[in-house]
Write a structure and sequence with these properties.
This protein is an alpha/beta fold. The chain folds into three domains: 308 residues, 3-Layer(aba) Sandwich (Rossmann fold), CATH 3.40.50.970; 202 residues, Rossmann fold; 129 residues, Rossmann fold (3-Layer(aba) Sandwich), CATH 3.40.50. Helices cover 37% and strands 15% of the residues. The chain is built from 23 helices and 23 strands. A seven-stranded parallel beta sheet has the order 1-8-9-5-4-2-3, sandwiched between helices. Helix 2 runs antiparallel to helix 11 and helix 6 runs parallel beside helix 7. It is elongated and about 100 Å long. The chain starts with a strand and ends with a helix.
Length: 710
């Protein structure tokens, strides 16, 4: 596609009527600008000093351009993902004034019921453009926004939903955000896939105190992207009403009509500190004076008065805005404080994977009433034993057939079929729109999955190896907390497939487990199947559920003979939090998961043969939630417990299990609680070193014998 660069200096003259086709609602623009200013003023001069608002980020200087841009978001499937200085555009798309004041006050209701800082908005608008949940991290808004853009195209072209025709996705960011991984990941996705996304960079020249020349060479991201293929650039002055109105309309119209990405860079002054606590001591008096001279509020007045409004009308608009904000503030202050009794609600969907109670307003299948078959918790084994890789592949294939909103993607999952061959043949059967490769960016993979999930799809991203999830941790963490911090207004259910653990050898990069990191992450369900049957049931439960899931596929078990099982049936769904007693016994309880289940079974058999003592082996199968009831009941019978896992010992998940057992079973114990894990080292590469590091059946049996003799 031909690339164009639109420069304000070459296309705009001094005439304020240069673009007659542009018809902003100037009265509403003026009212919103006054509203935004008065909100900032009240917060800065009253609510912050009174410590009623604890985080305040003024939008003064950024406000006019955002309001004009928001007026161009007219499609009910448009979405905007902003950041902490984006309140003006939220007001422009219809956020009620009382809500806009109640959020920063952390009062009941509002964006988060007092759970999140009030400057990160969300707005699940059923009848117009929505504001996707914002994050406190700089640059975290871009990849979810590009995921929404990809969902627009998927729903328009694959699902034939004609009401998505012309919808766009918009991401707002400051000039500092263009240095982040999220910006570049989203830019790569949007341009290579030609998605309807507008990047709006409001350039005020500073990232807190750091000048924009430290963020991008020359301090102008638009100039640096002039030759970026597949990207159209619009650039100009965000404080000039005519220029800003024209450019915001041209940019949004281009993305709508061409269904292609664009970047809009407007220069604006930041007429305040970065936040209420920032004194701007890093700016010279001349710089501050120059910024104040570019204030868009008086420039808007000069543009509209007397040609559009009289002085009296302009004054009345300001008076009305002040009155409306003051009334909204009083209503917000009258709201009660959030109820601490509700503090732990909405970490997960409260009604399990198939219920309909307390469903989020936006995101996932449930919000749109899309239901899937419940399935059966009872397996019906049939056919020959198959390996775990084949079981996962067959489940993905079946669920892709059942759910047209499901997509599978990641690095090399397409024609190659994945580096572990788990997705072999899926792209050939379901097409590139549903099973596709991605750029090498885990931030981009997970971030776009968040946007897709928010748009009502079921994304199934793959992280090629557990260690490679590290660059995506911001998006993973933000996704997990999304339901809680929006007070169940939004949720982003997805299934992240993640192979890991040792195989024929180990190494620090491909053999990490560290599953405890995801158990500790708020809002994620974590599955760690040890065999093909459990993999089928847990994967199907995940794909039909309403929460984000980490589905851990152990590399050593994907083609392991012990892990092979008959196909458990096309309807088999294994609920999370239900452990399996794989070997019954009465003398000691061994708790484990993943690849260690086989080794614990071998150790239990050795103990039985050598000592005649019986060992109960429990496979947890899921770690979030984990079946504490089954473990506690077993330990109360056996009076001894050993936890075995492949992850490092210090702060591993075994410590959590033993802490619970120590509390609940203290008086029942006849021996110390013990765990057997890898030492606190990365996974070693040489097989001799690996075998010395990972708990073996012999080591497990020896530890069992030690506890039995205590």
């Amino acid at each position: 596609m031909a690339r164009a660069r639109h420069e304000a200096s070459s296309q705009v003259t001094s005439s304020r009527d240069q673009s007659p086709r542009i018809r902003p609602d100037w009265r509403r623009v003026a009212w919103l600008l006054h509203v935004s200013r008065h909100m900032d003023m009240v917060e800065e001069t009253r609510l912050v000093p009174e410590k009623q608002v604890l985080y305040q980020f003024s939008a003064r200087g950024h406000d006019l351009a955002q309001i004009l841009l928001g007026q161009n978001l007219t499609h009910r499937h448009d979405a905007v993902c902003g950041y902490y200085r984006s309140r003006p555009i939220l007001l422009s798309i219809g956020v009620p004034l009382e809500e806009a004041m109640a959020g920063p006050l952390a009062r009941a209701g509002g964006y988060s019921d007092g759970r999140d800082i009030g400057v990160v908005f969300n707005f699940p608008n059923a009848n117009g453009p929505s504001a996707l949940p914002m994050c406190g991290g700089v640059g975290a808004q871009y990849t979810p926004a590009v995921g929404w853009a990809q969902a627009i195209e998927y729903r328009r072209t694959v699902l034939d939903e004609t009401d998505y025709e012309g919808a766009i996705s918009l991401a707002l960011g400051g000039d500092a955000s263009v240095a982040t991984n999220g910006f570049w990941a989203a830019l790569t996705i949007a341009t290579t896939q030609q998605l309807p996304m507008l990047f709006y960079v409001e350039d005020n020249g500073f990232g807190i105190s750091v000048r924009s020349s430290f963020q991008t060479p020359g301090g102008n991201i638009a100039a640096n992207l002039a030759s970026f293929q597949g990207l159209t650039i619009f650039e100009g002055d965000g404080t000039d009403p005519a220029e800003a109105a024209r450019l915001t309309q041209e940019a949004t119209e281009f993305v709508r009509k061409q269904r292609a990405p664009a970047l809009l860079r407007l220069t604006v002054p930041r007429l305040s500190g970065h936040s209420a606590q920032d004194t701007q001591g890093y700016k010279s008096e001349a710089e501050i004076s120059e910024e104040n001279a570019r204030d868009p509020l008086p420039r808007l007045k000069n543009y509209l008065v007397p040609d559009v409004f009289t002085d009296e009308v302009w004054a009345s608009i300001g008076t009305d805005a002040q009155r409306d904000v003051d009334a909204a503030l009083e209503a917000a202050l009258a709201r009660p404080l959030p109820d601490p009794k509700n503090l732990t609600r909405h970490v997960f969907s409260e009604d399990g994977p198939h219920g309909i109670k307390a469903v989020q307003k936006k995101g996932g299948l449930a919000a749109e009433g899309h239901t899937l078959p419940r399935g059966s918790a009872q397996p019906e084994p049939s056919g020959p034993r198959i390996n775990m890789a084949a079981a996962i592949r067959r489940t993905l294939e079946q669920e892709l057939g059942v759910n047209p909103k499901m997509l599978v993607f990641g690095e090399d999952v397409g024609p190659k079929g994945g580096v572990h061959s788990v997705t072999t043949g899926l792209q050939a059967k379901f097409g590139e729109a549903r099973v596709f490769d991605t750029s090498l960016s885990e931030e981009g993979i997970i971030g776009r999955a968040v946007g897709m999930a928010l748009a009502g799809l079921m994304p199934v991203p793959e992280i090629q190896f557990r260690k490679y999830a590290d660059p995506a941790c911001e998006q993973l963490n933000d996704c997990g907390t999304l339901r809680w911090r929006t007070h169940n207004r939004f949720a982003a259910p997805m299934v992240v497939r993640m192979p890991g653990g040792f195989f024929k050898c180990g190494d620090p990069w491909h053999s990490q487990t560290n599953e405890v990191q995801f158990v500790h992450a708020i809002g994620w369900r974590v599955a760690v199947p040890s065999n093909a049957e459990d993999a089928v049931g847990l994967l199907r439960a995940s794909l039909r559920g309403n929460d984000p899931v980490i589905f851990f596929e152990h590399r050593a078990m994907l083609d392991h003979g012990w892990a092979r099982r008959p196909w458990p049936g096309d309807d088999y769904v294994l609920p999370f939090g239900k452990a399996k007693t794989v070997r019954e016994g009465g003398d000691i309880t061994v708790v484990t998961w993943g690849a260690m289940v086989e080794r614990c079974e071998q150790a239990a058999e050795r103990t039985a043969q050598e000592t005649g003592r019986s060992v109960e082996v429990i496979d947890l199968r899921t770690l979030s939630p984990w079946d504490s009831e089954a473990v506690i009941a077993s330990v109360r019978r056996t009076h001894r417990c050993l936890v075995v896992h492949e992850d490092n010992g210090t702060a591993g998940f075994g410590a959590e299990i033993l802490a619970v057992i120590g509390k609940e079973c203290f008086l029942d114990l006849d021996a110390p609680l013990e765990r057997l894990t890898m030492p606190d080292i990365p996974s070693p590469h040489n097989p001799v070193l690996l075998n010395a590091a990972v708990p073996s059946a012999e080591c497990i049996a020896a530890k069992i014998d030690e506890l039995l003799r205590f």
